[in-house]
Design goal:
152 residues, alpha/beta, DNA polymerase, domain 1, two-stranded parallel sheet, 5 strands
Length: 152
């Protein structure tokens, strides 16, 4: 097994390169990109630095049906992208939103929307959008999807 791995490493090297320089090259040819919002598989991805937005959208299994499709662009290391919904034109004010407004946000159903409204009644006004993390049913993953749609 070790011999096969060594041969695979050596096969990618030029005769004047060491296997370690090849490994180092392969590591640096990757960039880190996060994508959230209206895509089928949101999250954090390590991709080849030659991959553009179109390539990333293929990797995340495409846009959701209500996605506001972005123009293709070159991606940068440590870039974070958010794909908006075409259902929401403006950000929703967390301190003024109705039940119906909150339910327009992806991943917010009636149950979570009601919990947000109950929490707002208890605290009078939200001072930070991060306060949503105090609500049962909203963890970091869901928060990373919904906060882009909100304002105070």
């Amino acid at each position: 097994m070790k011999l096969i791995l060594l041969l695979l490493l050596l096969s990618g090297c030029q005769s004047n390169e060491s296997p370690l320089s090849f490994i180092k090259y392969r590591e640096t040819s990757l960039i880190s990109v996060s994508i959230y919002g209206e895509v089928n598989e949101p999250g954090h991805y390590l991709i080849d630095k030659t991959c553009d937005l179109k390539c990333l959208i293929v990797k995340v299994n495409g846009y959701k049906k209500d996605a506001l499709v972005l123009e293709n662009k070159i991606l940068n290391d440590k870039e974070s992208l958010f794909i908006n919904s075409n259902k929401i034109k403006d950000k929703i004010n967390l301190n003024k939103a109705s039940l119906e407004d909150l339910m327009k946000i992806p991943n917010i159903g009636k149950s979570i929307a009601l919990k947000i409204l109950d929490y707002r009644l208890k605290v009078t006004t939200f001072k930070s959008i991060r306060e949503l993390l105090n609500i049962k049913g909203i963890k970091e993953k869901k928060f990373n999807v919904i906060y882009h749609y909100l304002t105070l």
